Amino acid sequence: MPAATAEPVQLLSPDGVRQDASGDRARHAELVSGVGAEQLRERYRDMAMVRRFDAEATALQRQGELALWASGTGQEAAQIGAARALAAQDHVFPTYREHGIAWVRGVDPLQVLSLYRGASHGGWDPTASGFHPYTLVIGAQLPHATGYAMGVQRDGDVGTGDPARDTAVLACFGDGASSQGEVNEALNWAAVFQAPVVFFCQNNGWAISSPASRQFAAPLARRAEGFGVPGVQVDGNDVLAVEAVVREAADRARSGGGPTLVEALTFRVAAHTTSDDSSRYRPREEDELWATRDPLTRVEAHLRSTGGADDAFFDAVRAEGDELAARVRRGVREMSDPEPLSMFDHAYAGDHPLVAQERAWLETWIATEPEEAR
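The chain above was modelled as a monomer; its predicted structure follows.
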């Protein structure tokens, strides 16, 4: 069983140069050998659209249109690379910041924003996209992901050799969540039962105001050894490297090889959420360093230097991003407040006597109490 990699897997340098494909790097390079100029343009577009959406969501929160926003700016390569590595039948269990994976899996950005506006509980149908609703409780989604993966096993959808049937689960979490008991319990359980899970940690350096150095003394990927599973550390700002590493882990999971822990080293450019001020605890030098490792400028530099894209392409992407921002801005402002009784609609799959009793009480209260008391 391979130990955690000695250094992060990187295929595209910060200045956009393809790295020498030798040793383990050759194996990973082969996994994305089909990603040519056209495919790389698609990945750049994904990252650019998600960043533009993110900027618009931040502005909407500042304008009072959203209650909160958790920015993912800076983490686009980790998310787009991971999402592009998955098969259609794979299932994703996100945190509250996986806007890029939601985008690739076909979740409308307005559905994501309805949660942050308080217009819904974020309950889109995961069977349509393979993307579970956002989880705001830190680390709580990992036992769910492991349980789902064990269900996939018992359904016989692992190790059949049928690429349209074999299924993997991507369990997303951050470096801060790695300190939660649920994360470690999920890793242990998945390892014991060889569940088809890719544990995908986006290590963005900070758990709100706590630096990673205060959370673990060794690379997070090395924890995998203690659970008896492979661990890989990857440059999380390199979309090609992330796609290769996650594809290898997902292929392994689908074939019956069990879980893998992937640690993607990236950076949270914005604050933890819009309720936070990262300038109070994060040194400016760190921001300046990671600005030189921006995932979008890396791909843009590569595409320009290799003739894979020109000004016309990048101008078109910017224009499309502005159109998305306008649609998001309009859609958020048009969202209506939910009816109070709708909170009971999806509490259980079927009827439940206690829910019916509570619904009836609230319905009576609404009908009898004066409006100013509500």
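The chain is about 45% helix and 10% strand.
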